[in-house]
Amino acid sequence: MKKSDFNYALPPELIAQEPLPERSASRMLVVPPGEAPLLDATIRQLGDWLRPGDLLVFNDTRVIPARLFGQKDTGGRVEILIERLLPGNRARAQLGASKSPKPGARIALDAGGTAEVLDRDGGFYHLQFEVEGALESWLLGAGRLPLPPYIRREPGRDDAERYQTVFAREVGAVAAPTAGLHFDDALLAALRERGIESGHVTLHVGAGTFQPVRADDLHQHAMHSEWLNVGAGLVAQIRRTREAGGRVVAVGTTVVRALESAMAGGELHPHTGETSIFIFPGYRIRSVDALLTNFHLPESTLLMLVSAFVGRERILSAYAHAVRQRYRFFSYGDAMLLLGDAFRD
Question: Is the terminal CB of the chain with fewer CB neighbours within 10 Å at N or C?
Answer without folding.
Answer: C
